Every structure is written in structure tokens, then in C-alpha cells.
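Entry:
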Amino acid sequence: MLICGVMQLGFETVTSVKILHTDLKDIDNKKLVDLCLSWRDKKIDKSPQATGYEDSRIPDDPEVGNLRQKVNEMVKSRIDNRYQLGEIWAHILEPMQSTMIHSHRNVKDHYNLFLSWVYYPHQHPTDAGGRLRFQIVSHMMMNNHEVTPKEGDIIFFPSFLNHYTTPNVGTEDRISISGNFRLKDEDYEDVYRDQHSGIHAFYS
């Protein structure tokens, strides 16, 4: 486990791949929740059969900018400053909803260097709000790794990694915010060859 100031960065192993599970400080979670709920009808995909059905856009607001800045600073200072933060979105699971298995894989990412993340501004104090489950096939075996997030937690993972949520069996909405980090074309090969880049800690 890496100790960075008062922040603990804990890698968790999903067979040959790792995820990074830590937390963020000085975020107005209530404001983020209110913003997500205010645009809950602005869905990215309106088909109930789509994995993006629970995803919605987030309005521009200083607190969203604060979140983006803190996530961006964490990746650039702790993983690699060549990463570029892209789109972000809200994910709202109503009671008894779950998310189908999916990944954030990009066809350009042939070395699996791109990163995704999910932040939890609101989570049921028990695991009733649903768990995040990662799944990967290794050596002809299906491996699962389950995370029970808490409010304020953030999880980074390689974008190709399949994941889904267990059902929200609580009485409140489960709200998270997700996004992706990518690399510029001119940096991609350099990061792949740079063994000092923090991205390789996800595979060590």
C-alpha cells in the first residue's frame, strides 16, 4: 500500500490485473448528488437494454470542476502526467436496478493503457446500494473481484476490464460519477515503454 500524505492508495489484485481503491477529500458530495439528480433525465442512452441507460450527463458547475481537478491531479501526480481526462457522467441506480456487464475499452488502446474511474458521492451506509464487481478470464478460469464502496471512495481501473454492479436493494438511489483517461497518440508508445510510468503498477 502506498501512503501519500494523509491519503492511502491501496492496490487490489484482480487476478493478473489490479485496481486502485482510495478516497477523495474536500469534495461537496451533497452538491454533486443534487447536480446529478437535477439532470437524471438527460440520459446518454434511452434504451433500457443499453449499458448506458443508467448514465446521464452532468451540468457544468464549480463543484464538478473541483471533482475533475482533484481526479486529474491524482492521476497526473501518482500515475503519469501524460494522461488526459476525458468525458465524465453520472450513474444513477434506482432501487432494484443493476448495471449490465460492460467495459470502457477503446479500440485504439491495443496495449490496455487507458484508465477509467468511478467516484461515489453517495452510497448507502451498508452494501444495500450495490457492489462493484470486476470480472476477467485468466487461464481459462473466470475471476471475480468485488468492491463495496463507501461515500467518498474513488476506484481507478484499466478501461478494458469488464465490470458490473450488483442490484441496489436499498430504498435510495445509488449515485456515482465515472470518467475515462486517455493518452495522446504521440505519447502512447512512450508510456508503454516507460517502465517508470505508474500505469504498469496495475499489471505488476
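The CA atoms of residues 131 and 148 lie 5 Å apart.
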